[in-house]
Amino acid sequence: MLTLAQAQDRAQSLVDAARKAGADAADALYVCNASTGVSVRLGAMEDVEQSEGEEIGLRIFVGQRSATVSASDLEPQSLVALVDRCLAMAREAPEDSYATLAPQELLMRAQPPALDIVDEAQPDPAALKERALAVEDAARSIPGITNSEGGGASMGCSQIALATSHGFAGSYAASSHGTWASVLAGEGAEMQRDHASHSARHLADLEAAAEIGRRAGERAVARLGAEKIKGGPMPVIFDPRVSGSLIGHLIGAIAGSAITRRSSFLLDDMGKRLFDSAVSIIDDPLVKRGLRSRPFDGEGLPTHRTALIDNGVLTGWLLDSASARQLGLQPTGHASRGTSGAPGVSATNVHMAAGGSSPAELMQGIKRGIYVTELIGMGVNPVTGDYSRGASGFLIEDGAVTRAVTEITIAGTLKEMFAALVPANDLEFRYAINAPTLRIDGMTVAGG
């Protein structure tokens, strides 16, 4: 693995070589990922995995033509051949008037912010095994647990370096730690499975293995005796485990590529109120120790905190330079890319602001409804916003969670769901996308 300084130098040298060979513009991206993971099952070691890979991608522009080539061989002579191959491909590529480097005047020039996303702690496989055994033991200790799909612990690190021919050079590193368990309760056809996990940039921020395991076991046991129910229109409560998925559908609909292709159900809704005025959704790449924090985007633009939804109103699109140019707008610092293609877009650390009511208060007045803890399948049409997904969870009767339910489908349209959505006050920051408990009235529930 190269050091960050070496990676930055390698990317810059590749760009310089491309310009010298005749490219009008170029950029190079270096990515390295290394990880170690240990998994156990029924108290015995099951697997140890270690991986490390590094790759560099070169993008060359010749007029309005461009091409991208990547390689895992970083020796100087191999990179010379990479330049020649990429340049030849670019000269034969079709013209694209929107493909471009980021506007030079918008490039990050300041010192990158300190995000504290690198942890020097590097537990060895023995320590990972100990944590994996602890999380599975805790899950299996819950009365009613009858089998295990395993427990695991992991650590990883990544390095990114980007250089462009018009003046940007930057790099950063990030670390990750994780723990998980998946267990089964009951016997035979009545068996139920559930899981729990946690990830963090720093080992010190990782939830205790015993707590993760206990939660996995209790979740599985709570699902025993799950019933099929009669469907109909009713309120649906989304547990925080799954509520963030609704924000994910919003993000997909406001991505620049969806707008330029006219394949978004929100195509004509910039500046319009989509949610209640109390709802705001924030994307913040500068969160200290955030799971998706980054100092600059995939094109070298500085990242910044953005209100995607501001007091219920959709503020704009997530744009890389190509989609921004096509729409006559400015890129937003959301470009994301790998080494083998042009940039797309992605959000970073996203959360929906908490509401003013507790989850219990949200349930008050619900005569009959569904509390969803798991969603299955991807039955969402991004063009129309039609929403239909398999689900499981619990029945709500007279304002309280009661019996476990299974084999149900919840359906609606995302615009109507957004407009009806009410957040609780239990927001926690555990994932890349975080939302509190959510209530949506008027959804259609189909029983099994």
Give an overview of the whole structure.
With 448 residues, this protein is α+β, with helices and mostly antiparallel strands. It has 2 domains: 217 residues, PmbA/TldD fold, CATH 3.30.2290.10; 223 residues, no CATH class. Helix content is 23%, strand content 36%. It is built from 9 helices and 19 strands. The strands form 4 sheets. A 6-stranded antiparallel β-sheet has the order 3-2-1-4-5-6. β9 and β10 form a beta hairpin. α3 runs parallel beside α4. The protein starts with a helix and ends with a strand.
Total beta strands? 19
By DSSP (H or I, 4+ residues per run), the number of helices equals 9
**End-to-end distance, in Å?**
52 Å
Largest sheet: 6 strands, antiparallel
Mean of residue pLDDT values: 96
Tally of discrete structural domains: 2
Which spans have pLDDT < 50 for at least 5 consecutive residues?
Answer: none
Helix proportion range: 10-25%
Strand order of the main beta sheet, please? Answer: 3-2-1-4-5-6
SSE order in H/E notation? HEEEHHEEEHEHHEEEHEEEHEEEHEEE
Q: From the alpha-carbon coordinates, what is the Rg to the nearest angstrom?
A: 24 Å
| Gross morphology | globular
Q: Give the DSSP E fraction (strand runs of 2 or more residues).
A: 35-45%
Family: Belongs to the peptidase U62 family.
GO molecular function, one term: metallopeptidase activity
Pfam families: PmbA_TldD_1st, PmbA_TldD_2nd, PmbA_TldD_3rd
Domain Metalloprotease TldD/E N-terminal: 27-90
